[in-house]
Amino acid sequence: MIKIEAPFPFAHGFEYLRPYQFSNHRCETSLGSHLLHGPRLKLDHESNQIHQCPSLQGPIAGAGHPPRNMDQPLTKGPTRPEGSHAGLASHRSDRSSPNPRARQVAIQKFTQPRSACLVVSASNPTTATAAGEMEAAAAGGGGGRWCVVTGGRGFAARHLVTMLLRSGEWRVRVADLAPAIALDRDEEEGFLGAALREGQAAYVSADLRDKAQVAKAFEGAEVVFHMAAPDSSINNFHLHYSVNVEGTKNVIDACISCKVKRLIYTSSPSVVFDGVHGIFNGDESMPYPDKFNDSYSETKADGEKLVMRANGREGLLTCCIRPSSIFGPGDKLLVPSLVAAAKAGKSKYIIGDGNNYYDFTYVENVAYGHVCAEKTLSSEDGAKIAAGKTYFITNMEPIKFWEFMSLILEGLGYERPSIKIPVSVMMPVAHVVEWTYKKFAKYGMKVPQLTPSRIRLLSCNRTFSCSRAKDQLGYEPLVPLKEGLKRTVESYPHLRAQNQRSISKASVFLGNGNLAKTLLWEDTKQTVTVLLLLAVIYYHLFTCGYTFITAMAKLLSLTALFLFIHGMLPANVFGHKVEKLEASNFHITQVEAHHVAHSISSSWNSAVGALRSLCRGNDWPLFLKVALSLLVVSILSSMSSQAAFKIGTALVFTGFKAYEKWEDTIDSMVSDACSILLHIGSTKKSSSQKQM
């Protein structure tokens, strides 16, 4: 699995979180999946079948919570305080009013940010089937109508679910892939946890590609918010098509068969982006491009067309929402990727001139855009205007792409991007990387982040007009961009720069002592002092033409002279305190002697262990490291002493620091190289066995 990274691993997509994410080689979800607590799945490319890891099948155990007898119904939680459903109460009295100011006031209570797990099993009668949950809710005496949110455990979908529950107008059925719903502590103590206990919300496990499961999830629902989609960074056309197109067909058919009245589809602005030309203040009149940027955009456009064509079929009203570059608390892609880039020293780069504008949208504004669409479709006059149409949703505050990234990085205590790399320089490199991927993908090479399409995404304009949504849906952003950025940064205290200190592998290798501080430049003063001493040694050994004995004698003389003068200095010179060197500084204690002896013996034993592992021939990473080290030593030994001293010093003082900075990338490249070698070796071995 070769992994070629750009200096900006956050390059891919700023869409809402999606519940379909698969790993080709490991049974786990990646951060790009945006599925917070979903099942871990993998995709078999040969059969195009999806499998769940055996170890994670069945109910998921919640951290810090004892297992519950799943034969017993969920206990009813504490009664919700009076007035807690007041959020959208004003909309009930006049559902036809598109007044944006009224809606803004009505939703103000929704914008309060809300992080161990409560697990609700899908086997429970109140969560497993639509019929069961309806009966349980009726028995509980709860009010409100049912709506369904597909992909309901995704990033933006979670915020929509919370907003709908806060309104008090809806019971929400959360539909997602996972066999059970896992709540974090905030959700358990918040509206969703209370709603699940009181029958105001329910969870149903459903795969959009299974028509029967989808129909079962939609039973008795009045509205469906279709938000589920695979992660846009997955390079698998079959997956995107099966979910975004075939899955959307199933959603439409289920809506019709279950007599659902309104379907709101979460689309993407990428459906009008060709991957080449930037978009500035684009509106809904923009046509679909002849060629899309990727398979995700193409299949989302196909799904959008299906939803718009379905409008009016047997009374079903539809519309499509295109939220632009979503961000906010709970995002598992953008901010963590930015921090990872900053820690690796990659966030300092700007691709292009840095003047390209983007429309970023705070996640609660995205949820509110969906609510506005549903409200408009629910009125007769609004349905005549909005049904069968698409709407861009943004914060209405275009901002320079790299300025937005800088504000997040600075807010978390990291350095702003400042080094500009022209697109003309990066594009040829991206084409080479893309060509390499096409050649080595069959050997397990991962999809690279540095591709021509992503270079264009990072350097072009992508802004959109919200005029249609404002005029026809009554949409106005509830949370301004500045406030959204503030809430986002505050929601990631664990990612702040001051909390990121960890011991690197390079530091461990160097003993975590003064040697590590010197070679890793942790103590700049100490490192510079050592470099000056090495310069003096180099001068006497190689530049002056002295013999080795003469050079050593002069160095010892200089050392003695320095110590004598240092000892004669007063305690304070021109206001600067002079730290005296005590004789004890030159003593070697028994503890230190034992430590040195122990270090030598440990190093020897480690070398013997490495040799034993090499003899077995099953540790390719170790073999590559040893081979590379021996190659460096052989090159240095073939040089003159003078050249070897200069090159060796430069390597020591830069190599360890470079490895510490790009540790993950280097380790990943070594691992991927080993995977390719093993794959080639196994292929040759199998072919030779067949010949025999």
Automatic annotation (TrEMBL):
Localization (cell): Endoplasmic reticulum membrane
Pathway membership, UniProt: Steroid biosynthesis; zymosterol biosynthesis; zymosterol from lanosterol: step 4/6
Classification via Pfam families: 3Beta_HSD (PF01073), Reticulon (PF02453)
Membrane topology: Multi-pass membrane protein
Keywords, ordered alphabetically: Endoplasmic reticulum, Lipid biosynthesis, Lipid metabolism, Membrane, NAD, Oxidoreductase, Steroid biosynthesis, Steroid metabolism, Sterol biosynthesis, Sterol metabolism, Transmembrane, Transmembrane helix
SUPFAM superfamilies according to UniProt: NAD(P)-binding Rossmann-fold domains
Keyword Transferase applies: no
Transmembrane stretches, start-end: 528-548, 555-575
Any GO BP: sterol biosynthetic process
Chief location bin: endoplasmic reticulum
A GO CC term assigned to this protein in UniProt: endoplasmic reticulum membrane
InterPro entries in alphabetical order: 3Beta_OHSteriod_DH/Estase, Lipid_A_modif_metabolic_enz, NAD(P)-bd_dom_sf, Reticulon
Keyword Oxidoreductase belongs to the record: yes
Stretch list, region Disordered: 52-103
Residue ranges annotated for the Reticulon domain, each copy included: 515-692
GO molecular function, one term: oxidoreductase activity, acting on the CH-OH group of donors, NAD or NADP as acceptor
Coiled coil: none
Similarity comment: family membership: Belongs to the 3-beta-HSD family.
Protein name: Reticulon-like protein
Originating organism: Panicum miliaceum
